[in-house]
Amino acid sequence: MSSPLKAAKDAIEQFQKVQKHMLIAKKENATETYASLKDDYLSLKAILNLAGINLTDIDKIKE
Questions:
Q1: Considering all CA atoms of the chain, what is the largest pairwise distance in Å, rounded to the nearest integer?
Q2: Could you count the other beta carbons within 10 Å of the beta carbon of residue 4?
Q3: Helix residue ranges per DSSP H, 1-63
Q4: d(CA 63, CA 26)
Q5: What is the pLDDT of residue 1?
Q6: DSSP character for 58?
């Protein structure tokens, strides 16, 4: 796998993992945890957007 493709794959996997934990934190009303995860979510979302990756189908949070 080429380096840019591997980097994109890793970022997408991290993005999905952060979203999963955000949804759990929201369900458990863990507001501080959610806020901390949101920082990671926004950073990863920015990186993926800059890489030109369409997040329409994978973004479950929509913030």
A1: 40
A2: 9
A3: 3-27, 31-50
A4: 13
A5: 61
A6: T
Do 22 and 61 touch, CB atoms closer than 8 A?
yes
Non-local CB neighbours of 53 within 8 Å, separated by 6+ positions: 8, 11, 12
- Residue 53 CB coordination number (10 Å): 15
pLDDT of residue 63: 76
Model's pTM, two decimal places?
Answer: 0.88
CA quadruple 6, 60, 44, 33: dihedral, nearest 10: -130
Reported as a single tens digit per residue, the pLDDT across 25-57 is: 999 999 999 999 999 999 999 999 999 999 999
The first and second tokens of residue 35, run together, are: 């806020």
* Alpha carbon distance 21, 38 (integer Å): 10
